[in-house]
Design brief:
By secondary structure, the protein is α/β, with parallel strands linked by helices. It contains 15 helices and eight strands. An eight-stranded mixed beta sheet has the order 1-2-4-3-5-6-7-8, with helices on both faces. The longest helix is centred in the first third of the chain and has 22 residues.
């Protein structure tokens, strides 16, 4: 991580904690976290960076405190206030779970996070409903945000998460903005993401056109969706998924990669593994996270071998729908050089590349330092294909 102010580098020299903290801070504009509460946690963590359980203990303690406040507000009949507390509590539990090794404790914290995030979203945003997307004899969990005031069949944006995000984040930072434009949002936890990974043991897969098609089929069956105006978007690691879906699932009218995933994922992860072995604090991932999402928790080499299939080489040229690539100029997670590489390879005649500079804001990975500028840009670009508000 380059030398930056405390907003980006909250724990100097500790990229793994700083990046995780920034992901949490990035949800502040949507009322999903409070900067004062984050500051309280981080001030305690400054003194505990050498303690292996400190991260979980401090974030989950804040989550537990707010959960009690939420329960009290609910008992007093203050449902909206309870929703505010539940949402923040759930986000802090989700942050606290991040560096817990896969096992029963991680699963329980993840379950708690999803439960409280859902309670908060339901109380704060009654236009959001849980949806189960039929998928290979089972279902994928999703949140459907209806655009207030939309009548008849309306456009939809399907949003797939990154490697360490969740639908509860996506439906807020993306869905709220899309709703203002008159578009619905389906925020979905695909295999290897959010609830699908934590509670259903569905691991990442390279052929994401399969869950992409399942999401489209689910939407096309709804009476409030215009099946000719369904776009797909993925952020961070989801940038690979969105590109893969756009290449093979031709029913989507447009696609967005909010980060151009590294061209050689296996090589990228091998380099991250090398860095982690030299200094566990030098990367944005924990030592086990990638192995976990790949379903290879006990074998890093197997995870890297599986990653060899996660490539857009020979695939990006099959993208024919309008396609947008948005990347961060100072991206410390996925090098910015990958954005023009992906742009050059995309086969669409209507493709566009936007790289955000530090002056504009949104120059850190997936615009987490300023989501608003990233989502505004994406929404404005999508408007000709989905319909301007």
């Amino acid at each position: 991580m380059s030398a930056k102010g405390p907003w980006i580098e909250h724990f100097p020299g500790n990229m793994v904690w700083s990046n995780a903290c920034l992901v949490t801070k990035g949800m502040a504009p949507y009322g999903a976290v409070a900067l004062g509460e984050i500051d309280q946690v981080c001030e305690r963590l400054r003194q505990r960076q050498s303690e292996p359980d400190a991260w979980r203990e401090e974030w989950c303690a804040m989550g537990a405190r707010l959960e009690k406040a939420a329960d009290a507000a609910e008992a007093a009949g203050h449902r909206i206030t309870a929703g505010d507390y539940y949402l923040r509590a759930g986000m802090y539990y989700f942050t606290g779970e991040r560096f817990v090794h896969p096992g029963e404790e991680k699963r329980e914290i993840g379950r708690k996070a999803i439960e409280l995030q859902t309670k908060g979203i339901e109380r704060r945003h009654p236009n959001v409903a849980r949806v189960e997307v039929p998928f290979e004899g089972a279902t994928l969990p999703a949140l459907f945000m209806k655009a207030p005031g939309a009548s008849g069949r309306a456009p939809v944006v399907v949003v797939f998460d990154g490697m360490d995000n969740c639908k509860e984040m996506s439906v807020l930072f993306a869905g709220l903005e899309f709703a203002r434009r008159g578009w619905h949002t389906l925020a979905i936890d695909g295999p290897g993401q959010g609830e699908s990974l934590r509670l259903r043991n569905l691991y990442a897969r390279h052929d994401y056109e399969v869950p992409g098609a399942a999401a489209y089929d689910c939407l096309a069956a709804r009476q409030d969706v215009d099946p000719k105006k369904v776009a797909v978007m993925g952020y961070s690691f989801g940038g690979y998924y969105a590109a893969r879906i756009a290449a093979f699932e031709k029913r989507y009218c447009a696609g967005v990669a909010m980060s151009a995933l590294h061209w050689d994922l296996a090589g990228w992860q091998a380099e991250i593994k090398r860095k982690q072995e030299a200094d566990p604090k030098s990367t944005a991932q924990s030592a086990f996270h990638f192995r976990w999402i790949m379903g290879c928790i006990d074998d890093g080499n197997a995870a890297i071998e599986k990653a060899e299939k996660f490539s857009l080489a020979g695939i990006a040229g099959k993208i024919t729908c309008p396609f947008l690539i948005v990347h961060a100029g100072d991206d410390g997670v996925v090098p910015v050089a990958n954005a023009p590489k992906l742009y050059d390879a995309v086969g669409s005649q209507q493709k566009h590349l936007k790289i955000f500079s530090a002056e504009e804001g949104g120059s850190y990975h997936a615009q987490v330092d300023n989501r608003q500028v990233g989502i505004d840009y994406i929404a404005d670009w999508l408007a000709p294909f989905l319909g301007a508000a």
